[in-house]
Records
---
Amino acid sequence: MSGNKTICVALDLSKTSEILGMIRLLGDELDMVKLHCDIIEDFDDAFIEELVALKRHHHFRIWEDRKFADIGYIAERQIKNSVFKIEKWADIVSFHAVAGLGSIPKDIGNLSVFLVVEMSNSGNLCGPEYIRRATEIANSNPNITGIVAQHRPDNLGCDKLVISPGVNLTGVTGDKIDQQYDTIENKMFADVYVIGRAITQAEDPKAIFRQLNETIKETKQH
């Protein structure tokens, strides 16, 4: 991460105009945005062109949070050959650890990988043994630059970035499905905070983004 930029904005939005508009609004303050290309209703080549132009102009990275979880042959084709043309615009992709080390292709161009070690939703199956084995996979692959987790697995010898979703400023502890939220204070272990609806659904997203950045900075200094 560059400087004090520790927020990845989760743009879990369904319209290209909403995504591009939020990027333009936050502009040079961005370091990383997270997309789910397969929930974008009007995804097309024009969107890719505008997205890449904005990325170059504002110098942020794009994480496509597809969470690949198949054999390596299929995962490689999903990245390179799908209608979403992921390798043309993304800098980072995410993988589940469930299919093992061999499921992460060695040839994915300049893309780096975030490995999902632990999820933020209630009822997930990421127990201690799964976390241990997933962390071993992360340590075994130099293309894996970060792990997605709800705790820092210090006792497992992991030296990757720890990326943590599920932050909320308002005290809300979850959504109406199964997502769970926590405070920044309880996530001081993280290197990167993935924050979505707290920013994108705010009346003034830029002000909330700046408030969150300042809160993180102040909390880490104490």
---
Amino acid sequence: MLPAFFPRVLYALLLRCLDVTYGPRLFTVADLASVSPAMGRSLERMLEYEGGDLAELFTLDWPRGDELTAENRQEHVRDYLQWFFSDRYASQLQPLSDGFRAVVGQSKLLQAGLVDAMQLEQIICGVEHPVDAKVLRAGASVKDWLPSDEAYLNYFWEVLQGLLPEDLRRFIVFVSACGRTPPRGWQDLNITIQRNGDGDHRLPTAFTCFNLFFLPRYSSKEVLHERLLLAISETEGFGLR
């Protein structure tokens, strides 16, 4: 999954490039506000303004900016929004749209128009749900551990289930670089817990591309808890905070 960095309107634009009918095609002031809150507020004030100097006070930087009048402002803003999300950034959006179409353009689910922008975002970025460590465990696997390590792995899951919600979210980001649940549930995150040697001086590490969590074997449950909190609190994704 990808981190939820982008405004939802981007997913509407990506669906639009597939030329499928999935819902309203006209963009709104709310869409613009999700990209630029200041511009969104400016357009809202323009639509509400009652003064006679509207055309002088509010100017939009686009090819038809000089056509604004008090009488046509509703249509003017509507057309401006369509221009903003199409022509203005066409050169930047086109390569992204081409790549999106090349990867998922043959999806029958998308071609049938059964997915809207919100659902596409959820498929790509997951859903905002509290982390459930028990469900997470149900979909997890282990690697390079011995049968005699079963009790230690139980300690790990006990520690994880005892974390505060915000620390549990940090663990998910640490392992996957994304704090959202997969669309079908936390079990689909499919974390792999791999043994990574022994030693209390070591910290857990992760390969976020593969949801692969490297866990050393520590001398006690208390050390495991301390080292886990230290690792997830001081790093996030690929970089140090």
---
Amino acid sequence: MRNLKLTLAYDGTEFSGWQIQPNVPTIQGTLKTALEKLLNHPVNVTGSGRTDAGVHAHGQVANLETMRSIDTDAVLRGVNALLPREIRVWQVEEVGSEFHSRRSARSKTYEYHVWRSYIVSPFHCRYVYMFPYEIDTVAMDEASRMFMGTHDFTSYCATATPVEDRVRTIFESEWRRSTEEWTFAIRGSGFLQYMVRTIVGTLLYVGTGKLKPQDILSIFEQRDRRLAGPCVPACGLHLVRVDY
């Protein structure tokens, strides 16, 4: 059996997230269908992680095993010919049997895009969250730095998250700003359900004065989701890169 690593991008707007679900379109399900048609045998497609409904990816990684000898360039061309235009595979590589797209990952980088004007282009609105209100950037930057390091993120993820170990390490947490679009970049060892979107919602609360920067650490300690800010919409969230 050969182990193939796929790097792919997708517009998640019309999909119900990565993971296969009955009776709804998903990235994993659509990719699996295309690969099975191309390779002519059942495949299990494993992703580096599950993106939620409406979340986009520029550098998602998946892997699968195949018994076929078709070369990687032919797989690349063939699978893209079978996929909808909202999903593109950038690269196909043959890797060792020990490679696993999720377990082998060392870190992931996400970006959240916030649009700072009252008007968003119809060609851009699917990929940003419009938030044109006044923001204290100094307070928000101070709060952003407090997410760095190793913490228990119980307060900053979905209440129903089934994962018991909610400790994650954050290596990067910063805002990059232009006139109309602000981007929050965060790189970590892993992420829980709604974690990035809740962090951004909390930072926007700090920026608008509803929370103070020093509240961030207190919210960590209390492990209570109700104390953090809201979970902002999925449309602004982008999985940028997975590092191995």
---
Amino acid sequence: MFDLDGTLVDTAQDITNALNFALEPYDIKILTVEDTIKLIGEGVSRLVEKVLPVEKMHLKSDFIRRFLEYYSEHLTNNSKEYPHIRETLENLTNLRKAVISNKREDLSKRLLEKLGLSEYFDLIIGSDTASERKPSAVPVLYVINKLGVSIEESIIVGDSNYDIEAGRKAGVKTVAVTYGYRHRESLTEADYIIDDIRELVPLVQKL
């Protein structure tokens, strides 16, 4: 099971552009990519709550609408898979694979389709697929049930503490990648930490 943003695909610039488009009418300071990276991970609703000042929280629904409209139209303007993602997925062809994102399901699927990556996955789910999102164990257990595999033979790979926490709550092995949006020190709860996605192949073969 793979996280999407910060694990498979670097989406930070396109998310930043969409946030800044949504912010434009409200006289709120625009964001840099570095700002956005600190905010990504818990889905669009939480993202907006972090961006909007308390006194402007009544604009949340309009902000989300503007953000989603823009982001949906500019999904892959700058987004690209991280190095060696495709070859790693090709080297894991004998395994069932899924994506668990806190991005909405339709956007997750469209993003992966546009980048030619969706064919590698048996299942792609988003924040609105299961009843809860990461760091809850619910989406992890949802995927395990859908694919008919056991907890013991399941692994989640992600770049954030939300992925690791979701995996640990579900009782699956956890692998953190360090090239994404979080610093290594926030990933220490993972069972394994890798700096290069290619390290996943020999690791999986050992487990």
